[in-house]
Design a protein that fits this description.
This protein is α+β, with helices and mostly antiparallel strands. The chain has helices at 5-16, 20-39, 85-91, and strands spanning 44-46, 50-57, 60-63, 70-73, 76-83. 42% of the residues lie in helices and 29% in strands. It is elongated and about 55 Å long.
């Protein structure tokens, strides 16, 4: 099961005791801050969790999987995630 915003809101509401509306505002504000930093090309580091990084992809040759035709893929920006050693250790238990 995927962790959704609704799950986050419910967890914050139960753990901290904030009203649902405030919990929702908190999650939305956090997501907006993360999105704005990534849009500006800045890394987002969350200690003990990991790092979100924006990488520039250059133009490159590709192939349409449906037709097999060669094509040029346009340059683009992608977000990558690298988990922290702390999280990696907890996952690998």
């Amino acid at each position: 099961m995927a962790l959704t915003k609704a799950h986050l809101v419910n967890s914050i509401q139960k753990e901290i005791g904030l009203p649902r509306k405030k919990s929702s505002e908190l999650v939305e504000s956090l997501m907006e801050i993360i999105k704005q930093n990534l849009e500006n090309g800045e890394d987002v580091l969350i200690s003990g969790f990991g790092k979100f990084r924006v990488k520039e992809k250059k133009e490159r040759k590709g192939r349409n999987p449906a037709t097999g035709d060669d094509m040029m893929l346009v340059p683009r920006r992608v977000v990558t995630f690298r988990c922290s050693p702390v999280l990696r250790k907890k996952i690998s238990k």
